[in-house]
Write a structure and sequence with these properties.
Belongs to the polyphosphate kinase 1 (PPK1) family. Its EC number is 2.7.4.1. InterPro entries: PP_kinase, PP_kinase_C_1, PP_kinase_middle, PP_kinase_middle_dom_sf, PPK_C_dom2, PPK_N_dom, PPK_N_dom_sf. Its cofactor is Mg(2+). The chain is of the alpha/beta class. It is 35% helix and 22% strand. The strands form 4 sheets. Strands 14, 18, 19, 20, 21, 23, 24, 25, 26 and 27 form a 10-stranded mixed sheet that branches. Strands 10, 11, 12, 13, 15, 16, 17 and 22 form an 8-stranded mixed sheet that branches. Strands 2-4-3-7-8-9 form a 6-stranded mixed sheet, with helices on both faces. It starts with a helix and ends in a 14-residue tail after the last helix. The relative contact order is 0.09.
Length: 699
Amino acid sequence: MLINKVSDQIKRSKYISRDLSWLRFNYRVLDQARDTDKCLFDRLKFLAITSSNLDEFFMIRVGSLYNYLDYGKERLDYSGLRELPFRKKLLDYAHRFVNDQYLTFNNELKPLFAANGCDIQKPGELTELEQKKVDSYFKNTIYPMLTPMVFDNYHGFPLLMNQLLTFGVVTRTTDEGKPQDRVTFVQIPQNLTRFYEINRKDKIVFVPIEDIVRWKIKKLFRNVEIVSVNLFRITRNGDYTLEESDDLEADFVQEIKSKLKTRKKGRVVRLEVERNPSQFMMRILKERWTIDNANVFTINSLLDLRCLWQIINHRHFRNRGFKQPASISPRSLPNDGVDLFEYLKEHDVLLHHPYNSMEPVVNLLERAAEDPTVLGIKQTIYRLADQSRVTAALLKAAENGKHVSVLFEVKARFDEERNIKEGERLEKAGCFVIYGISKYKTHTKMLMIIRKEGEKVTRYVHIGSGNYNESTARLYTDVSLLTTNEIYAHDVSEFFNVITGHSRPNDYKYLMTSPKNMRNQLIELIRQEARNAKKGLKSGIVIKINSLEDREVIDEFYKASKAGVPIKLIVRGICCLRPGREDLSENISVKSIVGEYLEHARLYYFHSNGAPKVYSGSADCMVRSFDRRIEALFLITNEELKREAIRILYYNLQDNQNSYTMREDGTYIKRRNGANEDAVDLHKLFYSKNATEEEVELF
């Protein structure tokens, strides 16, 4: 009865739960692992991604829910459910997902290993010679790093680290004629590879490190009776909120560093454990961490499927997977060898990554670092590549005496420590470095190069949706603009003054920014389409984003739909809007694109009665984007570049190979081309010049 009430409440709500929507997104990623048209190693890659995604989901979203539960705060989910019913619904759904994850791995992927030259085996399945090699590896490498930590009346409960494989070994001794059980924890060090690799003539055998430790566990418990050996893994709450400090002189970086340490001690929100664990141990863990069966995930295979990356990236297999085509020149930059400093004086350039390389941006920055006429460089940085060429260029610019100011966002989740270290390197080189803006996360992506050219100073601007990370730029789809247009330059200069100083400009001509007024400006654009529709004028909205969650914007979409505005939304991940509901959203369609590349671009199109307005930039339609982040969307004013952006949206709508259609109940169905319909795969199509030239209409 209670289940029916919960289901009815969810169905009645005009919004979709953010967290349930996210889990449905991870199902679409899992769908890639089930795709039999893909090779084994690509399928393993997507399965590993679902595992990484789920780890972050538990750390952040489930962690956030427990911030309410643990401190008695009220929370009403978009689905209409309060904290406890929602917790049950969410964790039940997560259990179903994990079950489907492992069904995919055990039943669909593992049987393909032998035919692809690999296998996962336990030490007992190896030859005698191979066992000797594994035994030597245990003695020389693993054993010295293991630290048994007993918990009993004389020893406190040890701090078990987040997301490390841990053995709970239950032992029994007899004290004063009575048997006494106690549990000892052995964590597997994170700096050892997950698999020991054995090269055979016909295959590579991967031996899990946990099976090696289990095989030799008696070495750690000499002359002690072992009752059971149980492998488990915990996930701790990684969500934290930084409150704005009244002390303007407070060391913000030190505050972040101290917050990072709390992740090690955060409350446990998930316990993954192998089958048939010791009930004695489970009782201790549940009581210690205040969890119940809903938090416990019993795993019938490898714990932590992120370990599959070692197989995927093995030198024998890394070339078996998806082969990325060579990038093509942007339509607006026909010659790769052009002098950008000269070319950009007369032309704007729109880049569509990864189909267009990020090299023009990185090369421009590297040239600026060496160019004697460049006076200064300003840049926002959210995520960087390992061995970043961007950082190297900024260091070189500082060494060459140029003014370099960089805003490093130290609240970029899981990249905080790296960004702090990189920022400190730049500071030592003489750069002016700002580590975030108090309670706001700086998510916008901007670069400005100031160059003296005779009596004139020219500002070269780059602004886009993607990070300055040359590695992920090959895997994420993004849109960015290179320009020397004075209006863009003025707006970006003003915006840098806002985020590095204390300026409050009245308005921007080509920029829409948050937290100041982005939500209101987008709402006004939506309302204008509704007004046009009511007058009988042409109208239409097409928006491509990562996530749609902001209730105020969703409500405006609903009103515009009722006014007769056709609305087409391309939302990769979370979508809290309910499409196609009678008398609410009949004119709204939602699709999600999940495939070889991570769809990361943001594009906003408003028909405007035949004079379209098109924006791109860093912001999604989320509360955090509008209220808690520094974001920017830029208007694409050049008519040819605007047509390019419209073509990008058009082919996103046409794609029928990577697309899922969202239904009114929040579920998704895979879209396939019909018998008389050509296959359209946008992840291949955009490598063709033809896709950038065709004249198209969205409505």
